[in-house]
Design brief:
Length: 317
Amino acid sequence: MTGGGPRVAFFGSPAFALPVLDAIRERFEVVLVVAQPDKPVGRGLKLTPPPVAARAAELSLPLAQPRKLRGNAAFEATLRESGADVAVTCAYGKILPLSVLNIPRYGFLNTHTSLLPAYRGSAPIQWALINGEAVTGTTIMQTDEGMDTGPVLLQEALPVAPDWTSLELADALSAQASRLIVQALSNLDGLSPTPQDEAQATHAPMLVKEDGFVRWGDTAAQIVNRSRGVAAWPQTTAFLGGARLKLGGLSVTAGSGQPGEVLGVTEGGLTVAARDGAVLIRTVQPEARKAQPAHTWAQGTGIKPGTRLDIWEPTRE
């Protein structure tokens, strides 16, 4: 380690990782940035770098974007030659093989947005909200070959505001992760690894489109929590006569009826019955159209109390 602290290789890809990279750069020398390869984006399928790669280019930081890590001798040489004392991963998106993990002297530290061993996997922020957690947090862990199974180095809880969606929670956790990783890097020799309790492990798999489909047979709170969790993607989707509707601004409200039954249409929104209670919907976006106030949509399509939205039953759960 140099007198100014460890030299860091940073592995990350999405915008979520940018504050973490910036926080590390303010205190330590970043000798290599590793991001996912550029991908086609938009209708024109323009090849676009992930946000972390774009930031590295902007800052003239050494950048690598390997398509694979396992068996990639050229990349291993790049990491070794960077002189990194430690590597940090933040939403990088690839499993790291042992041959890569063993290169830096202090190995790899991962910033994971849950209180491990809870919510291991790629979508801890989303599933914490879907499951109605009132508290989540950030874990700095020593990366091993498993999926978020390494020992815990630092951990800090974060209360979840009742109105936060995945967007607000991601911002709060990104800020927390930025602070904690600087704390960890400042005291690498003093960190005490604590093994995770496997018996307490839960999982947060990558979301699929169906995770955003409304289950009207759930309670109103469950429906709203799911909507909070899928706010960034895939968003909240309901069906009427088989046609998809994107719903926005959901909240729990009073009311009772058959699940999926429209109970009321006012300027405040559309009230729809759940298994227990009701949900107020403020905006509706029909397919291939812009989002509009729910009451405007209801009036334009003749939706009245007694109309029932389609009941969709999940196959995944």
